[in-house]
Amino acid sequence: MTDIFGQTLNLNYVLLLPEIVLLIFSMLVIGIDAFKRQLNISGNVPVGLALAGLVVALTLSILQVNMDEDFARLIQVDSFTSFFRILFIAITLVLIVGSHEYIEKSVSHVGEFYGLLLLATVGAMLMASARELLTAYLAIELLSFSLYIAVSLARSDRRSGEASLKYVLLGGVASASLLYGLSMIYGVTGATQYHEISAVLSAGDTGLTTPLLLGLVLIIVGLGFKASAVPFHMWTPDAYEGAPIPVTAFLSATSKAATIALFLRWFGGPLLPIASDWQFILSGVAVATMVVGNLVALQQVNIKRLLAYSSIGQMGYMLMAIVAVGSGFGSDATSAVLVHLAGYIITNLLVFISVTHFFNQTGQEEITSFKGLAQSNPYLALMITAGLFSLAGMPLLVGFFTKFILFQAVVSAGHLGLVTVAVVASTVSLYYYLMVVRQMYLYEPEDGTEQWRLSLTGYVTTLALFVSLVVFGLWGTPLYAAADAAAAGMF
Amino acid sequence: MPDISVTIGMQQAWLLPAMPVVAFLIISFFRKLLPREGDFLAIIGMLGILLVTLFIIIDFQGFFHDGEFHPGEANVYAFDWVRISADNFLFLIEFSTYIDAISVVMLIAISIVGLMVAIYSMGYMQGEDRYGWYFAVLSLFVAAMLLLVTSGSLVWMYLAWEGVGLASYLLIGHYWERQSAAEAAKKAFITTRIGDVGLLIGIILLWKATGSFDIQTIIAAATSGQIGETYLTIAMLALFAGAVGKSAQFPLHVWLPDAMEGPTPASALIHAATMVVAGVYLIARFSPVYEVVLVARDVILYTGLLTAFLAATMGLVTSDIKRVLAFSTISQLGFMFVALGVGAVGAAMFHVLTHAFFKALLFLGSGSVIHATGRQEVEYLGGLRHKQPVTAATFIIGSLALAGIPIFAGFWSKDEILHAVSGYASPFVYIVLAGTALLTAIYTTRLVLLTFFGSPRDRSAFDHAHESPSSMTGPLLLLGLLATVSGFFVFDAVGELFGFSGGIGYLVYLHHPHAFHIDWAFASIATVSSLTGVIIGWVYWHGGAERAIKARTWSPDLHALLVNRYYLDELYQGIVNKVVLGLAGIVAWFDKKIINETGVDGGAQFIGYFGYRLKFLQTGKIPNYALGIATGILVLSVMVLARA
Question: Which of A268, A279, A320, B526 is most open to solvent, judged by the fewest CB atoms within 10 Å of its CB?
């Protein structure tokens, strides 16, 4: 405990070790890459360093799993934080191992790329662990700025620069909205600490209804942008299409999960006392997101855009569950969201890494270019099919189990109407996932297409993800237990 | 007892299904890379099962006091498979194993016959296509069967129940190039599925009533009167429907004779010794509940009785050697259900055990004949005892056991059943059952005479015939020994020798186990009746079977009725063609026109149209996107402020 400005603060830096390690390694990767000619080092050093940093940070996070302590009243290291720390580090780890060939081949500034991924991971981790509005805001910006640059790094793809520009400009608008919203909340409550805001809001009428409600709207818009909620989603397909595929995967996994973590922290914490004021906003946004995301996906011809709309639809299901968090079943709904998030991420990574390898081999990303993949690479076709079926929520795969838990939690909270929309929307989603499967299995490959194989790391990562897809699909109890523990940390 | 039981015992029963599952996975994925296509892995798996079964029996004795089984915590192993809990909701499916005397009897039968069949198959299936795949499916079957009899949870038992059905389907259709095999596989799967639906309904009903899938919890709840009697009767009859399908009881028995299209060793294991007694196991497992719902128990009794009799009459006229055995299996299963129907669980399980040995022996013997001659219709066999002495000798031992001739295994177990029936039900039941036993002796004698005695009717087949290799005769000899001696287990002294303070009546938990004593008068009646059957068989079918052929003219209609299996197959086919397909036609029309073309296609076009319109909101221009955000802010603000 240290006294600063008359406040007693806990400055136990051990709590921040995972983040600190990742920061140091990201600087190392970027620094070494800048001087690689002068130092005459092999091209494998950046990726090796990035992986080493991630493994160390993962180990440290696992060691801190049972902690429940705050750092300087800014960061809370509890089971919720640990869940997301481990999740985010694992995502980056799997992505780098699974697609390093693509990164070496199709990304300019490889070292910076790895460094940015590590920085973005730190940002995401801090978003999940912040216990104070401004810290959370800075964490969002750390994640966003890293990604603005990373999106632009696809080598020899002009769409990449365009995507980055759109992302940064619109991100600025959203960020302004979010900050404005936060300032209104601060103005009403006089606090930025979550628990203090919660105390003020639950104490009763603040007398400042209009700024509070406007603040809520602006916060939902800001976070909704990050979560690709309709109508703040429009950047998503363009950014997904232009970005290097691993960044697209990162956007759809870490960036989305971090936003959902923040949604849970805020709407399950400081803003919970005024749940009735935001529930109907979020319900509307969730319905719009589920409907628009899944309908427009039907019309796509590019696999990355298809997955962009699919992830918009998926975010709709999660926002629906955030509504349920406000209905007095906070812990159940939160753990359901976490279960679904974990399942969604495993599945999404499998699909994206498979698509990355497909692109590596063929250089194509149109849905029709998957024609006959079941013959030219039956293994990869099976992986993609399993991933898409899991996204659609087919039984035996993890997507079914997690979606079932999610929908069940929302029904228990009394939002049958929302779940009805979600069920119809997931039925529609099966159609566009099957469009891809149909190309792979029902059509002959182009003449002259030869059988091809993945790289060893490609096989290892996809197989590991596929096995977890099936194992958690059949035996979801461990996933459920972990999510339950994480949710318990928050409530 | 050795200390090893501390490390491997009833708690480790999950090892039993785990070992063959591993064998199945390795063989099915890597059989092309393995020497001998991996058949040795299946054998190793079976040996492991036998070993673990031995340890389980050693451990099991520790729970056996004063002739009764005292379940303890140690016989249960469990972990949560699915646990979904919320403030107002708990849904739990455990994976659990539960071992008691009933499972132990099943384990003995499965492990011994399984090993014998696997060894035998190395000789029988040698050089065939899909040799490795056969062993993979055999391992899959054994895994599912072991899971079925060790599972403490109805859900896992049901999964295993379907698993053995799947393996059975795959093995019946092993020679799928043959139209008849493919048809038979389909028939077996669909017919047993009809019963399985009943089982599923029963499971759901029991779960609704008790909130649990745990078998012991359900039994405790049902026997303590927590479930209404009518409800419970319906649920238990639904469970019995599953048993009727799987154990080929009337009216769902029609699949078993056709199932003989599969490789003969698979028939021996699946369609004689193990899978078809799954129904008996199920009813025995729930026997405490059937004590409460006596209406359901009577249904079991009369179903078993009718099946036993009908199947025996059909066995009299069948010419395919394997199908005769199939009918005899159906008939013997009927005996077991009769025993269950009078509450004699011990007698039923005893018959399960002896039947497993002697019927597997008979099937493997018939396989040896088919292997040597390439023929399986008795019209083309005859005189084979000269060519195949070992096969003939062991087949005769099996037949004596089946016919119920004293000292052979079948005599003791059948005697127990008849004894139980005479003490319980009306004399009518006893008379029909004793008559069926007589018929059994007749058709068994007929089969032996036509196959191994007389003069060969197909010279070329006879000339090429030879004794089978030792991988096949070895199992025959061992099963021959068991078919002779396994009945002695009924004596208290033999039971004590194995560490149980009593015979089979004590091994299988009963409310009132009776000490075994031979009722001489009773046994002599049974013996005389069996011997009469053998003599009748001899008179009609010895030599050129002239009397039997003449006998057909007594009543050609009756003969035709039996040969055509009471026209039940035609009846079912007619029902399927007229009723099911007719109804399906109407449904298909509705589905095509109303659901698909109007509803689905219309809906899809509607949805696709919306997607198409919405697509144009995505212009690619940044100001438009920002306008989207701004509109969102405006609309939401107006909404919240208007609401406030």
Answer: A279
Torsion of CA A54, A55, A58, A64, to 10 degrees: -120
Cis omega (within 30 of 0) on the bond before A244? no
Between B514 and A140, where is the model more confident? Answer: A140
Computed on alpha carbons and rounded to an integer, the radius of gyration of chain A in Å comes to 22
Cross-chain CB nearest to A217 (options B80, B611, B637): B637
State the DSSP string of B279-315: HHHHHHHTHHHHTT-HHHHHHHHHHHHHHHHHHHHHH
**3-state SS class at B633:** helix
Interchain contact, B611 vs A209, CB within 8 Å: no
Please tell me chain B's helix, strand, coil percentages from 3-state DSSP, rounded to the nearest 5.
75, 5, 20
Band (pLDDT 50/70/90 cuts) for residue B412 is: confident
Number of H helices and E strands in chain B, helices first, is 29, 4
Task: Give the span between the Cα atoms of B309 and B630, in whole angstroms.
Answer: 83
- CB-nearest to B607 from A225, A298, A332 is A298
Note which residues in 131-190 of chain A have CB less than 8 A from chain B.
165-166, 169-170, 173-174, 177
CB contact under 8 A, A231 and B643: no
Mean pLDDT, to the nearest integer, of B323-331? 92
State the number of CA atoms in the 13 A half-sphere of A18 facing the CB: 30
- The residues, ordered by sequence, that sit 6+ positions from B386 with a Cβ below 8 Å of its Cβ are none
For B76, the 3-state DSSP assignment is strand
Instruction: Give yes or no for B226 touching A (CB within 8 A).
Output: no
Interior CA angle at A319 toward A317 and A321, to 5°? Answer: 75
The structure tokens 């007398």 sit at: A207
B632 contacts chain A (CB < 8 A): yes
CB-based contact B108:B116 (threshold 8 Å): no
**Alpha carbon distance A161, A164 (integer Å):** 5
| For chain A, domain boundaries | 2-488
Q: State pTM to two decimals.
A: 0.77
- CA-to-CA distance for A428 and A61, rounded, in angstroms? 39
ipTM of the prediction: 0.88
Q: Which of residues 400-429 of A touch B (CB under 8 A)?
A: 405, 408-409, 412, 428
Retrieve residue A345's tokens: 């991420």
- CA-nearest of A456, A482, A478, A458 to A468 is A478
Could you tell me which chain A residue has the CA closest to the CA of B92? A477
For residue B126, report the phi and psi dihedrals to the nearest 5 degrees: -55, 135
Name every chain A residue with its beta carbon within 8 A of the beta carbon of B604: 431
Find the distance separating the first CA and the last CA of chain B, reported in whole Å. 80
Nearest to residue B488, comparing CAs of B415, B398, B430? B415
Contact B304, B337 (CB under 8 A): yes
Least confident of A13-17, A29-33, A456-460, B567-571: B567-571
One-letter identity of residue B143: A
DSSP assignment letter at B80:
E
Rounded Cα distance between A226 and A438, Å, is: 32
Contact A408, A423 (CB under 8 A): no
Contacting residues for A202 by C-beta, under 8 A, at least 6 apart: A273
Q: What crossing angle do the helices spanning B154-172 and B131-150 adopt, rounded to 10°?
A: 160
**Angstrom distance (rounded) from CA B413 to CA B425:** 18
Interface of A with B in 317-376 (CB under 8 A): 329, 332
Residue B207's closest CA among B153, B148, B160, B151? B153
Cβ neighbours of B89 in A, within 8 Å? 408, 412
